[in-house]
Structure formats: C-alpha cells, structure tokens
UniProtKB/TrEMBL annotation:
<keyword id="KW-0378">Hydrolase</keyword>
<dbReference type="InterPro" id="IPR052708">
    <property type="entry name" value="PxpC"/>
</dbReference>
<dbReference type="InterPro" id="IPR003778">
    <property type="entry name" value="CT_A_B"/>
</dbReference>
<feature type="domain" description="Carboxyltransferase">
    <location>
        <begin position="23"/>
        <end position="283"/>
    </location>
</feature>
<dbReference type="InterPro" id="IPR029000">
    <property type="entry name" value="Cyclophilin-like_dom_sf"/>
</dbReference>
<protein>
    <submittedName>
        <fullName>Biotin-dependent carboxyltransferase family protein</fullName>
    </submittedName>
</protein>
<keyword id="KW-0067">ATP-binding</keyword>
<dbReference type="Pfam" id="PF02626">
    <property type="entry name" value="CT_A_B"/>
</dbReference>
<keyword id="KW-0547">Nucleotide-binding</keyword>
Length: 283
C-alpha cells in the first residue's frame, strides 16, 4: 500500500488505456507518455498492463506502508527517499514507512511512478486509467489517497539503470497529411511545416493549443463529426491548431490538417506551456 501525502498539481493512475470502446463514445485515455510508463513497468519487472501513477509537474510525495520496489521515469525530477537522493530510471527499494518525494522537473512535464505489482484500482471497461475528459476511472490522487499494490509482477527485474535522454528541447515532430487538408488554404500546410509553434497555457491531457501563425480555412461550412486519433491536429475557426493527446474526444467536427506519427507522441506529452516545437512532413 502507498499513501499519498502530497499529490502535486495533478497525479492520476494510468495504464495502457481503454482501446475498443470508441463506438460508444469512450476515449482510449492511458498514459500520455506511453514509452516512459512502459519503461517504469519494465524497471520493476511488471507486466505491460500494470497501472502506474502519472505525475504532472512533480510535487508528489508518497509513503510506503510496506517495503516495495519502485521506479520513476519520464520528466527528470529531483527524487529522494526520506531526504536522501535516489536515482531516476532505476529500481529503488522503498522500505516500510519511507517517504518518496518528487521535486519539480528540470525538463519535460510528466513523470511516471511504477511499483512492483502495479497500482491495484478496480478497472472500468478494462482499464484503471483516469480519463480527465469523460470522468471514467479513479479520481485524480489527493492527500490521503491509499493506493493498493496489485499482483501484476512478472520476472524479477534485471536492469540497474536505464540510459534515457532528457526530453528534447524544441522537438521536431513528424506529420502526415490529415483527411481534411483540402479544407485549409494551401498556405496552411506550408505554415504548419515551416514555422515555429508555442504551447499555450490552455493545454492539458486532452490536447495542446498551439500559438503561431493563423491557419486559414477555405471552407466556412460545418464538417460532420468524424473519428479522431491521438496526434490529430484540428484547426478551429480561429485558425489556432489543437494537437490532440491521450484524453481527446473520439469524434470532432473541426478539420484535421495533419496527424503526428505515433512514435513522436511521447515527446508531445512532455511539452510544457511556453515550449516551442516544429513540424516536418514524414518521409
């Protein structure tokens, strides 16, 4: 059992999400930076479906009620156990009664805490993930939340430390043409793939609103709602694109100019308000 002493700005339980329910309007959700969450599970020897804690902007403090093996990955944060520094991207033994504390990330936005056995929350539609858009899954963590440890441990971990690069500054994301590129002026694609963009404060797990040149549409009529995927770049009437993330709605009526390739989405999940990014056509 882990007891939350301080949740930080936002901490949620996340696993690989709820695929297969889009037909009834349920988003997939799941870890925004799936690569970091998967790494945390591998470091403690969990099965891939084990749930982790996604920590936004650090600040989480948890106490172990019994000795557990944990690992923290993702955005690099100062990490300590009872005030003594602990390594990132490595298994860490947390003795009974010890307190694990995360500071503010030096880069990136989201960190992931895995405990051997996984976080044991009753699943909803096959997933333990908190979906901030639909409200499915457990509430965000709060002071006093008690997190049971499950039985999703696999083989004993054999990695002492994983070599992980810092989240890239000013990442360049690969994009494919979206299904409604023809709804935008031809200059929109050129602007998207040649100009620099900035993440605005109006961003969350649903999506990132981007600041930059206005992308002009050639059609003003309404588009019937159609399916959406993570990484889709929607263009609302104001011309400011929205890059959809893990908790995006399953349908939408704004034209999709482009889609970020799946392999680049972990970098998107680590972008903070004020960060810059660029896009380039995938080849």
């Amino acid at each position: 059992m882990l007891t939350v002493l301080t949740p930080g700005p936002l901490a949620t339980v996340q696993d690989r999400g709820r695929p297969g329910w889009a037909s009834i309007g349920v988003p997939r959700s799941g870890a925004a930076d799936a690569a970091s969450a998967d790494l945390a599970n591998r470091l403690v020897g969990n099965r891939p479906e084990a749930a982790t804690v996604e920590i936004t902007a650090g600040g989480l403090r948890v106490r172990a009620d019994r000795t557990v093996l944990v690992a923290v990955t993702g955005a690099p944060v100062p990490l300590d156990v009872d005030g003594r520094p602990a390594p990132l991207n490595a298994p860490v033994t947390l003795p009974a009664g010890a307190v694990l504390s995360l500071g503010l990330p030096r880069a990136g936005l989201r960190s992931y805490l895995a405990v051997r056995g996984g976080i044991d929350i009753p699943p909803v539609l096959g997933s333990r993930s908190t979906d901030t858009l639909s409200g499915l899954g457990p509430d965000p963590l709060a002071t006093g939340t008690r997190l049971a440890v499950g039985g999703l441990a696999a083989d004993e971990p054999v990695v002492d430390v994983a070599a992980v690069r810092f989240p890239p500054a000013d990442p360049v994301l690969r994009v494919l043409p979206g299904p409604r590129r023809a709804w935008l002026d031809p200059s929109a694609w050129a602007a998207l793939t040649t100009q620099s963009w900035t993440v605005t404060a109006d961003s969350d797990r649903v999506g990132l609103r981007l600041g930059g040149p206005r992308l002009h549409r050639v059609r003003d009529d309404e588009l019937p709602s159609e399916g959406l995927v993570p990484g889709a770049l929607q263009v609302p009437p104001d011309g400011a694109p929205v890059l959809l993330l893990a908790d995006h709605p399953v349908t939408g009526g704004y034209p999709v100019l482009a889609v970020v390739v799946t392999a680049d989405l972990p970098a998107v999940a680590q972008l903070r308000p004020g960060d810059s990014l660029r896009f380039r056509p995938a080849r």
